[in-house]
Specification:
This protein has about 80 residues and is mostly beta strands. Helices cover about 0% and strands about 60% of the residues.
């Protein structure tokens, strides 16, 4: 099932400043099995600024989906949702 947009607080994610990478497990975000989000919109609760991450690719290892990668190409920031 394709979901166009999900808006969430940056507080829901781990952020690696060096790698410029947000991460979180799908179950923590309540993304259901089989659900693919086209765009994640992360909102900083302090500044209320929004950052848009568009689906890039599935992360596959040994024929199993490990997660999904999203990118904000303008800012060079990535987001990974881990398939747990």
């Amino acid at each position: 099932m394709l979901v166009n947009n999900l808006t969430m607080s940056t507080d829901m994610f781990h952020y690696d400043k060096k790698e410029r990478l947000f991460t979180q497990e799908a179950s923590t975000l309540q993304v259901k099995p089989g659900q693919l989000v086209k765009t994640f919109i992360l909102v900083n609760p302090k500044t209320e600024k929004k950052c848009y991450f568009r689906y890039n690719r599935a992360l596959v290892s040994h024929d199993e989906i490990q997660g999904w990668e999203y990118k904000n190409k303008e800012l060079g920031i990535h987001l990974v949702i881990w398939n747990d």
